[in-house]
Amino acid sequence: MSEKNGLIALKVSLPVFFGYLPLGASFGVLFSTQLDYAWWIAPLMAVTIFAGSGQLLAVSLLVSFTGLTQVFIAMLLLNARHVFYGLSLLEAFKDAGWRKFYLIFGLTDETYSLLTSRARSEDKGREQQIDFLITLFNHAYWILGCGIGAWLGKNLTFDATGIEFALIALFIVLCIEQYKVLQSSFPIWVGAAAGLLSLLFFPESQQLLIAMLLICAVLFWQYPANKHRYKRRLIKESADEQ
Predict the structure, then answer these.
(1) Which is nearest to 9 in space by CA: 99, 79, 84?
(2) Domain ranges of the chain
(3) pTM listed for this prediction
């Protein structure tokens, strides 16, 4: 059963592999070329932090000799969205035992998308094992990418312009997968509108947090209607199967 679960997790996580490898490499190159540290510290950061945008922000803050208080506030604002991710997975992670701590630690944007969009069985223990393996694979991809990029940045000279687009491409793929599961474009339009409003009316340092708050407010407002619609759909599908 464990081997089968591992193959399922590997298959589900492969899209993240193709995004994390070049994106992690771009972070590694940036780390090695901008900071005067040993190359292996980049994959060590990936092991202990595992936050792509947070690690990229950390490099820019370290380069500019920013104080620890400003670093703390910036990282808190940047990763505040994970609070909302965790709330939606309380039931899925319940009674996960020792796995729960790693599932919480490894909950990135991409992992959250995979965990919430994949088909699930009634066997909660099996599903939690698959969730754990997906998170572990994604973490390994990121560490590998960071390590390769840092080593290359320290030992080779090359033009890596444009490699950061891998993150955008990865989010596009995950967005499409979410749409296939939800069969609704409403969350996509809400996200686009919230991002545009934040971009137009708020300073850059607050845009991500404001956009997340707007999205959550609208989705919470829509939750009762969507819940009843989803139940009706399940009842209809069950009736069709019979």
Answers:
(1) 99
(2) 2-183, 184-242
(3) 0.66
